[in-house]
Write a structure and sequence with these properties.
The complex is a heterodimer of chains A (about 450) and B (about 450). Chain A is of the alpha+beta class and about 450 residues long. Chain A has helices at about 1-20, 25-35, 230, 255-260, 280, 305-315, 365-370, 390-395, 415-430; strands spanning about 40-45, 55-60, 70, 85-90, 100-110, 115-120, 145-150, 160-170, 175-180, 190-195, 200-205, 220-225, 240, 245, 250, 270, 270-275, 290-295, 295, 320-330, 330-340, 340, 350-355, 360-365, 380-385, 400-405, 410, 435-440, 450-455. Chain A contains nine helices and 29 strands. In chain A, strands 23, 24, 25, 26, 27, 28 and 29 form a seven-stranded antiparallel β-sheet that branches. A six-stranded antiparallel beta barrel of chain A has the order 1-2-3-6-5-4. A six-stranded antiparallel beta barrel of chain A has the order 7-8-9-12-11-10. In chain A, a hairpin with an 8-residue loop joins strand 4 (about 85-90) and strand 5. The radius of gyration of chain A is 26 Å and the shape is flat. Residues about 1-25 of chain A have low confidence and may be disordered. Chain B is flat. Chain B is built from ten helices and 31 strands. The model of chain B is unreliable at about 1-20 (pLDDT under 50). The chains are: A alpha+beta (about 450), B alpha+beta (about 450). At the A-B interface, helix 4, strand 28 and strand 29 of A face strand 19, strand 30 and strand 31 of B.
């Protein structure tokens, strides 16, 4: 009863919204019919460290006839390793009996906020994957009417939901975006089409809105063309580029005056050059002001402009050779730089689970030592998870500790090498049925809260 | 049978009688103790300069407690009550208000000593000496002894609460901070009591049934009930002596973080109750210079055996190091991987992580001097630490943030507060010719350049 009442309210709201657009009502209806077959529901599970499964449900769009489906990577955060997600399914909510087919995960692109999977299960007879039609020339001009699509929840039978809107503005930075008005809140990464039902982009969180990333009363749309690379090579994870500079600052007018730069300002001041990274190797220095990148002026005077510049850095390709013009000591200098690959993030780091100890350990990544101000060449294993009630937990080991010694034996090397050594040491203890052993852990910034952890084991 | 029943009744009655007799003794003792200490009990209202939102603000709304302990008018209280006070107003047991000033304080033990204006007292009571409470001893206190907390909980002056000593050697960890930011609690254990202690009791005395001060009430745990903690009076006496002699307490450090050995003796190959474990060595500290390493066991200091099997024993060892003269050479017997060695270490002055604070009105910001400990913590050579910016002021417009370390103003280094103040003064003097000034700051590990516009 209550459900019907709510459904009624929704329809009325849609009707009200559509009222103002009645002239386009027929177009919208036709577009809806065109888009509907490609609108699917994607479900999968995220495993937490206790082995509990958390269901994730979102809207997806069929983007190729082989069953390729794109959806928001927001549900697969970059810091969570890919192997923690499983049992992907694509439900064809607009087909008879709602077939729910298994799919394989292919890749995600955290910079775009998109992920792709492909249906792997044989579809029932009669079900043909209908990809959304992409507009050849989106030509998104302010005032142009567009439609945004999503799905209403399970309670409404996963009904296709859509809203009418207009293009407000095309934004080039921080990345090409389109601002649109929508009367109805559209699902994240739902497709946005022109009035003829051809996809021009996908709704994403507003990268400039800060906080939760919502812009109330309007939607931010990622142009479909930005997905081209991901859809062409869906199985290939994107190499993320890296220059190795941080603490960047815009150069407004007053700062330009202090620096002896042009009166109008514009540029990016470097506050930190990370050791051993491409910027350092190219000779960039702290206090350099970046003025040009490959002949294009870096006209950054405020925080918004800085975000745009950072997005531009992200879009450089690994291995790409670029030329910076920098302002150093009152004169311009040319710096040639080869863009590197971003150091491995925690989400991609190799892990090992020692069920007997109730531990999940992962290799140390660059960001661990950077964040904790530890030597970059520190050897050890990062404690990702300590099972409640496990021997190490009772001894005082905590998630976030870095194990550097086992019974006074220093862990060596990095990655696989350290895992092999650690496992060998533990296996030896296990074989000897040694009842007590000690981890030395680095804890806190600069290891200032380091501790010796005694583990009392009861090997069976 | 009848005889024995009769005897049983007598026993019960006797016990009852003894019980009431003891209860009435306790009542009497409490009343006597109150009579001894209450006249010397003080309600402390500190007038404090604090730095908020980039400005100096004078506040006088908080209330603490204290106790007069010398006939010269010295009052004991907590550092967190009056340590930063410019002056204090004390309401005595007679309900009269007398002004006072801070003689000195010690954030590590959270103690401060005030001096009452004796002339004011003499004007009101020309024939009566100032009432004084007697400081007792805390070494032999036992768990279960009845004690009283006296003070001004929530500003309710002259309040007495009763409880027992719940623990005589409570260790509350080595990473506590006072509300004003100083580190505290490294060198002492605490007397725990269930006598009710609320905000406002801070600085008031914990009193024995003999009417002697056995501790200074300093903190309580908000989450539980009746969990109060007092600084033991034996330690108070040591600290007070130094404050009265020279206004502050000098301590040494070698820069090690110690860990108790509990159940790790076998692993390190030492006998039980021998040695203390080095868990971390501060970078550039005397210990690091001397070659001490995490995992070393310090067995003795200048021939005196050290042992910390439990965490409660750590403050004693930290205090031993703290009592050594600054810049003096000492010998540690160290056990490293089964081998004993002698290591010579030279102590250095222990500094707090909070330096003097100052407001620079012309720039609209407040800054603190960096202490050696803070420089080490922040990994900067020198500079001044920004604590706040005034909304709409030049510093806020130039996007300074709390935690920035200002190292250069207009190209000139500003290694300390004095140099910074001078540099700021210079910029203000020349602001008509130089309207915008460049300032170099360190923010975490990054260098930031800020342009401060002094004339719009």
């Amino acid at each position: 009863m209550r459900l019907e009442h709510r459904a009624c309210v929704l329809v009325c709201a849609a009707a009200l919204a559509c009222g103002a657009w009645s002239a386009r009502g027929e177009d919208a209806g036709a577009a809806l019919e065109k888009v509907k077959p490609s609108l699917v529901q994607v479900t999968f599970y995220q495993l937490d460290e206790n082995g509990a499964r958390h269901k994730r449900t979102t809207v997806g769009t069929v983007v190729a006839a082989d069953g390729l489906v794109a959806f928001s990577a927001e549900y697969m955060p970059a810091q969570v390793p890919e192997d923690r997600f499983e049992e992907f399914k694509v439900e064809f909510v607009h087909e008879k009996d709602h077939p729910d087919l298994a799919a394989d995960f292919l890749s995600r692109d955290p910079d775009l906020g998109a992920a792709v999977i492909r249906v792997s299960e044989k579809p029932p007879e009669g079900l043909v994957f209908t990809p959304a039609a992409f507009a050849k020339d989106p030509g998104l001009k302010p005032g142009q009417p567009v439609l945004g699509f999503g799905l209403l929840g399970d309670g409404y039978g996963s009904t296709a939901n859509f809203g009418l809107g207009n293009v407000i503005k095309s934004v080039e930075k921080p990345q090409p975006l389109v601002l649109c008005t929508y009367p109805i809140n559209i699902a994240l990464f739902g497709p946005v089409t022109s009035m003829n039902g051809e996809v021009v982009g996908f709704v994403i969180r507003d990268p400039l809105a800060g906080g939760r990333g919502y812009t109330y009363g309007s939607a931010v749309v990622l142009p479909a063309a930005r997905l081209e690379n991901l859809l062409k090579n869906p199985g290939k994870p994107k190499e993320r580029s890296w220059v190795g500079i941080s603490d960047l600052q815009p150069v407004p007018k007053d700062l330009a005056q202090v620096l002896g730069l042009s009166e109008n300002g514009g540029g990016v001041l470097i506050g930190r050059v990370l050791a051993g990274m491409p910027a350092e190797m190219a000779g960039l220095k702290v206090e350099d002001v970046l003025l040009k990148l490959d002949d294009e002026k870096i006209d950054v005077k405020d925080e918004t402009g800085l975000k745009g510049f950072m997005e531009r850095l992200k879009r450089l390709q690994v291995g790409q050779k670029v030329v910076f013009i920098v302002w150093r000591g009152g004169a311009e200098q040319k710096i040639d730089l080869t863009v590197g690959e971003r150091p491995k993030e925690a989400g991609k780091a190799q892990r090992v689970e020692r069920k007997d100890l109730g531990l999940v350990l992962r290799e140390l990544v660059y960001y661990d030592t950077l964040g904790l101000d530890l030597p970059p060449d520190l050897s050890g294993l990062y404690v990702h998870y300590v099972k409640s009630g496990s021997w190490p937990e009772l001894g005082g080991l905590r998630a976030g500790d870095i194990i550097t010694k086992v019974d006074d034996v220093q862990l060596k090397g990095s990655g696989e090498e350290t895992f092999v050594q650690f496992n060998k040491l533990i296996d030896e203890l296990k074989e000897k049925k040694k009842k007590e052993f000690v981890f030395f852990v680095s804890r806190g910034v600069k290891g200032q809260n380091s501790a010796f952890i005694k583990v009392e084991a009861d090997w069976k | 049978m009848a005889k024995s029943r009769c005897a049983a009744v007598w026993v019960v009655l006797a016990l009852f009688a003894a019980g009431t007799a003891r209860a009435s003794n306790i009542d009497e003792n409490i009343r006597n103790a109150r009579k001894k200490v209450f006249p010397a009990l003080v309600n402390v209202q500190p007038i404090t300069e604090t730095f908020q939102g980039g400005q100096k603000v004078v506040t006088g709304s908080s209330v603490g407690s204290g106790v007069i302990f010398t006939k010269e008018g010295h009052v004991l209280t907590n550092f967190h009550v009056a340590g930063h006070a410019k002056k204090v107003i004390c309401t005595l047991g007679t309900k009269e208000r007398i002004h006072g000033k801070v003689v000195g304080g010690d954030p590590w033990t959270d103690l401060a000593v005030l001096q009452l204006d004796l002339e004011e007292w003499k004007k009101i009571h020309p024939d009566h000496p100032l009432p004084v409470a007697e400081l007792g001893a805390s070494a032999d206190l036992e768990v279960g002894e009845t004690v009283m907390a006296m003070g001004s909980p929530l500003g309710l002056a002259r309040t007495l609460t009763v409880g027992v000593i719940s623990n005589t050697e409570r260790y509350l960890g080595d990473d506590m901070k006072l509300p004003s930011g100083e580190l505290t609690g490294l060198f002492n254990t605490w007397l725990q009591t269930d006598a009710a202690i609320s905000p406002g009791n801070s600085g008031g005395p914990l009193v024995s049934l003999e009417g002697k001060v056995i501790g200074i009430n300093s903190r309580a745990v908000g989450l539980g009930s009746n969990l109060g903690f007092a600084v033991p009076v034996d330690l108070v006496k040591q600290v007070v002596k130094q404050i009265l002699d020279k206004g502050s307490v000098t301590r040494s450090t070698v820069g090690v973080r110690l860990q108790e050995l509990r159940e790790l003796e076998e692993h390190f190959g030492v006998d039980m109750r021998r040695g203390v474990l080095v868990a971390a060595v501060e970078p550039s500290s005397p210990a690091q210079k001397a070659g001490l390493k995490a995992g070393d066991l310090i067995l003795s200091l200048d021939g005196k055996d050290l042992s910390a099997r439990f965490s409660e024993e750590l403050p004693v060892i930290y205090e031993l190091f703290a009592q050594l003269p600054v810049d003096s050479k000492h010998v540690l017997a160290v056990l490293r991987q089964g081998k004993e060695a002698k290591i010579e270490v030279v102590t250095e002055l222990l500094t707090q992580i909070r330096g003097d604070e100052s407001e620079e009105q012309g720039w609209g910001l407040t800054v603190r001097d960096l202490t050696e400990a803070q420089k080490r913590q922040l990994d900067v050579a020198d500079g001044v630490y920004v604590t706040g910016t005034r909304p709409g002021g030049p510093a806020e417009k130039a996007k300074f943030q709390e935690g920035d370390v200002i190292r250069f103003v207009d190209g000139a280094p500003t290694p300390d507060l004095e140099a910074f103040k001078k540099a700021v003064e210079e910029t203000l003097k020349n602001k008509e010719t130089k309207k915008v000034v460049g300032v170099k700051v360190m923010r975490d590990k990054g260098l930031y350049l800020r342009a401060v516009r002094l004339v719009e």
